[in-house]
Structures are given as C-alpha cells and as structure tokens.
Design brief:
Elements (H helix, E strand, L loop, with lengths): L20 E2 L2 E2 L13 H15 L10 H9 L3 H20 L5 H6 L1 H15 L5 H30 L4 H11 L1 H14 L1 H4 L6 H50 L1
Antiparallel strand pairs: 1-2
Helix pairs in contact: 3-6, 5-6, 5-10, 6-7, 6-10, 7-10, 8-10
Length: 250
C-alpha cells in the first residue's frame, strides 16, 4: 500500500464542479424567456444587441437547442411560401392551359393570411412555427375554394356565356359547397381554439391561425374571386384575339 502523499500534493480549491464547452470553447449557459407579448425573435435580437455592448473583448454569444434552430430557419419562411405559390401557379397553369387564370387563385390568398394574423393578434398569440404551418395549409384550403369557382366559370364560359355571366353563375353554383366545407372545417378547429394543458399554446396557435384565415378568406373570396376571374379572363381573351389577328395578317 503506497499513500498518495508520496507522489502528489492535494490543495483545496474552489470552482465549478462542471466545466461546459461549446465548439471547443469554455462557455457559460444562459437561459431566459421573454415577457408576455414579446416574440422569441425579438428576444434573440435584444440579447445579441446587449451582448455587443456589455460583453468584454474576446467574448461572444452563440445559440444552441431550439433557439439555434429557430434562428437558422427564420429566414426560410419567405422562401417556403414562395416555393408553395410557385408550385400552385405551375399546376394551375397546366390545368387551365393559361398563364393568367392561376392569378385569381393566388391573389385570393392574401385575404386569408390577413385573417390569420388578425385573429392571432386578437387572441394575443405569436406568429410562431405553428401559425406558419397553418398558413401553408391555408394555401391549399383557400386555393381549393377559388379553384371551384374558376372551374365552374370556365365551364360556363366554354358553353357560350359571356365572361360576366360565367363568373356570376360559377360563384352562385359553388357558394353552398364552399360555405359548407369551410364552416365544417372551422367547427372542427374549435377544440384547438380552446385547448388547455400540455401543448395548449401550439394547439391554440395553429387553430386560431387556420380558423381565422379560413373565416376571413372564405367571405372575402366568394366576392373577390369572381371579380378577379372577370379581370384576367377578359385580359386573356384580348390577348388571344390579338394573337389570332396577327396570325391572320401573317
């Protein structure tokens, strides 16, 4: 048996029992939470601004966990929505065989997006990832309503009716199915709107954004889509007439 004192000396020191490192640098973990009504993005920006003013030379701030994922994906929202709208446009252009008729569908979507943000503000909720998922979902739901009206208007137009008559008859014939499906969808979201317990904030966010966008988008769309159809179908007809006239001259 050899005592430790023969080959080492022990001194009592005081320090952290665990040394944390991040990216091979010694680090200190800081956690925080924003006050009510302050979004996580505003908190991230405030911490970065304060750290530049307060931290000494050689110190820096780096994010980890969910906050890092949020910061890295924060600039992708516009890109994702842009890709969604591009695919919607390409599919509708192929379906209608027209480069102009998809625009009534796409231009009817901002009303639903406004409704989502409006109801989120009324409910005191943030524009978080759950609300953004609801917005992507609304592209399909509100686009479906506009497609129903335009499809029927196209059929009436091909049967020989004028553009105005085709738009009116298309909107009237699809009014009841659109209202039935929209209100059924909104009623199905009521449990999410009043959710409690674990995960309640996410449920309320996605439910409020989807229900508000569907409510506003549906009522605005049944009046807006026929008007947009008249505008773009008139423009498309004039372009076809001018093109045919040029071909006849040639």
């Amino acid at each position: 048996m050899v005592p430790y004192s023969n080959f080492m000396t022990m001194d009592r020191v005081f320090g952290p029992s665990q040394i944390t490192r991040y990216n091979m640098f010694t680090s200190a973990l800081i956690t925080g939470e924003g006050e009510g009504g302050i979004s996580s993005g505003e908190v991230i920006q405030a911490v970065e601004e304060i750290s530049k003013e307060v931290l000494p030379r050689g110190y820096d701030v780096e994010w980890s966990g969910i906050t890092r994922e949020e910061k890295d994906s924060g600039g992708q929202t516009i890109l994702i929505f842009g890709i969604c709208l591009l695919f919607v446009y390409l599919l509708l252009a192929a379906q209608y065989e027209s480069l102009l008729l998809p625009f009534p569908v796409i231009l009817s979507l901002p009303a639903g997006i406004f409704g989502s943000y409006f109801f989120l503000q009324l409910a005191g909720l943030e524009n978080n990832i759950y609300a953004q998922v609801a917005l992507v979902m609304l592209i399909g739901l509100l686009g479906k309503n506009a497609i129903l009206i335009i499809e029927m208007a196209n059929q009436y137009r091909q049967s020989g009716l004028s553009i105005m008559e085709a738009a009116v008859k298309g909107a009237v014939s699809r009014l009841r199915p659109i209202l039935m499906t929209s209100f059924a969808f909104i009623c199905g979201l009521i449990p999410l709107l009043v959710a409690t317990g674990a995960g309640a904030l996410g449920n309320r966010s996605i439910g409020t954004a989807a229900a508000g966008g569907m409510f506003i988008g549906t009522f605005v769309g049944i009046f807006l889509v026929p008007g947009l159809y008249i505008l773009f179908e008139t423009w498309s007809s004039r372009l076809k007439t001018d093109k045919k006239y040029d071909e006849d001259e040639d």
